[in-house]
Design goal:
By secondary structure, the protein is an alpha/beta fold. The protein is built from 16 helices and 22 strands. The chain is globular and about 80 Å long. It binds zinc ion. The site of zinc ion (ZN) has 6 residues, from loops. Zinc ion binds next to loops.
């Protein structure tokens, strides 16, 4: 059998690996590349293998950098199934639709910009085209600011008429919906047949609700070959979900090749146990100033962890019980998914909430904001509150409106609880805010620009790093060394090059046989 790597090699997004036997090709994850638009777009449009040759797909978890290209694979010529845990299948119902909505929105925005550029040329008379006064008026009204999302079709018609380039979304809502038909959710630790003499067994990866390490075993011929794909590996002692698995079934202990993530292969996080007191400190300080806390938050996982901690702090009366708002339709849906999968919760969650007849994600002060009108009213609310809103990296979504209304006020806090990618607005806020803080807040506040306007960043910017969903160097090492696995060969994926290489060097020193593959590299097992 051989294993090939076509995504998340020396980078963190676009997970896409294949296992090929004499009879089958199995795809491990089918993730979207994220990052700089142009580069990501080019990578996303090309599928490294034809869906026709794939027997089945094994999906480690629902995050878009692992699942986000599934609609491209299932749209044409794919006859297999997507195997994953039940919670992952459930979460994908919302995440893939949301991803399609973003793809469609991005394409419509680019088309709008092309049309706008065309209009500008017409107005100045620089273009070769000439149009009548009536038509110019129609185009102007079509491109009135804020209207383009509603007028996608009319704009495309205009572009076609004048032979201008039209950008199509990577995939549509229809394609995302179609992909959902292929999902087969299976329980943890139940082997399922995924090919000729080929089985897959999921073990909890402790990364996110439903996340799995997949043991893929080929028992054709005289020898058994076993590959373990870690997917993303979580932290130990995280709230809600179980820890990463350390004890595997006897028949799954001998691993010929382990494909391991290495996002934080060269970094050590704050311990999870310290997060609640740190969160309390930030809340106390903000409420003492009479301010509010804005938390740019990822819909899947981070939002629910924060709600869990807030609920615990509220039950113990450890902080002022101000209203808590989840202002994200996606986060609201995903919170419901969590509520429907208590079988994946850890013992602490059962003891602290379920056995006492409580839902960790329901409490008196917690409100899920639904309509845009409610969200806008909350923007203007100056009484102390906590709001969790997307997008997580502040690249769009309702959080920008909360920031717009609140970052000028030094009573407020922007609480960063997730990784902010390079070149994102979230990273900019984080860098400028923390620098101003480090300089003792002397001099005028830094300025940040969004929505075509400059805003003074007076609000405090605080980062609580321990909320990471990825295990750090010590936790990844713990899975390798303290589990009952016997690993022959190790491959590191899903890490920036410097993280993967540093981790590789460390693990080689610990006696492991480690490879950090390049894109397209294959390894025989
Ligand atoms: Zn993930």
């Amino acid at each position: 059998m051989h294993v090939s790597f076509y995504g998340a090699t020396r980078e963190v997004t676009g997970s896409f690996h294949t296992i090929t036997t004499d009879h089958d090709t199995i795809l491990l994850d089918c993730g979207l590349f994220q990052g700089r638009r142009k580069e990501a777009e080019e990578k996303n449009h090309v599928l490294p293998v034809s869906p026709k040759i794939l027997t089945n797909i094994v999906l480690s978890h629902a995050h878009i950098d692992h699942s986000g290209r599934l609609p491209l694979v299932t749209w044409k010529d794919f006859n297999g199934r997507i195997f994953c845990t039940r919670a992952t299948a459930h979460a994908c119902e919302y995440l893939l639709e949301d991803s399609a909505k973003i793809q469609e929105g991005d394409a419509s925005y680019l088309n709008y910009k092309t049309a706008k550029h065309f209009l500008a040329k017409l107005k100045t008379g620089n273009g070769k085209k000439k149009v009548s006064k009536d038509e110019l008026r129609d185009i102007k009204s079509l491109l009135k600011s804020g209207a383009h999302r509603l007028k996608t079709e009319a704009i495309e018609k205009l572009l076609r008429k004048h032979q201008l380039e039209i950008v199509n979304p990577l995939y549509t809502m229809e394609m995302a919906d179609e992909s959902l038909e292929y999902f087969r959710g299976v329980p943890y630790e139940h082997p399922v047949t995924i090919g000729h003499d080929l089985t897959c067994t999921f073990y909890d990866a402790g990364h996110i609700l439903g996340s799995a390490m997949s043991v893929i075993q080929y028992s054709g011929g005289s020898k058994t070959k076993t590959v373990l794909y870690s997917g993303d590996v979580g932290r130990f002692n995280k709230p809600i979900i179980e820890d990463p698995t350390l004890i595997f079934a006897e028949e799954h202990r001998d691993i010929d090749l382990m494909i391991m993530e290495s996002t934080y292969g060269n970094r050590v996080h704050d311990p999870v146990v310290d997060m609640k007191p740190l969160l309390k400190k930030v809340l106390d300080e903000t409420f003492d100033r009479g301010g509010s806390v804005i938390i740019p938050s990822f819909a899947y996982g981070r939002t629910q962890e924060l709600l869990y901690f807030l609920h615990e702090l509220y039950i113990a009366n450890e902080v002022k019980r101000v209203p808590v708002y989840v202002d994200s339709p996606l986060a609201t849906k995903i919170t419901n998914v969590f509520g429907e999968h208590p079988e994946t919760f850890d013992e602490d969650t059962h003891e602290a909430f379920l056995e006492r007849g409580m839902n960790p994600f329901q409490f008196e002060e917690l409100k899920f904001v639904q309509s845009v009108e409610e969200s806008m009213a909350l923007n203007r609310d100056t009484s102390p509150h906590i709001v969790l809103a997307g997008s997580g990296m502040c690249e769009g979504g309702r959080v920008l409106h909360h920031l717009r209304h609140k970052i000028h006020d030094d009573r407020n806090t922007v609480l960063i609880v997730g990784y902010m990618g390079q070149n994102t607005f979230g990273r900019l806020l984080q860098n400028k805010g923390e620098k101003y803080e480090a300089d003792g807040r002397s001099g005028p506040p830094p300025k940040v620009r969004f929505y075509n306007k400059e805003y003074p960043l007076n609000a405090r910017v605080v980062t609580l790093g321990g909320f990471s969903a990825h295990g750090d160097k010590n936790e990844l090492t713990r899975v390798l060394k303290e589990s009952n696995l016997r690993i022959k060969q190790l491959v590191l994926v899903h890490g920036e090059e410097e993280q993967s290489l540093a981790f590789s060097k460390y693990l080689k020193g610990e006696g492991f046989d480690v490879t950090v593959p390049y894109h397209g590299q294959s390894i025989d097992v």
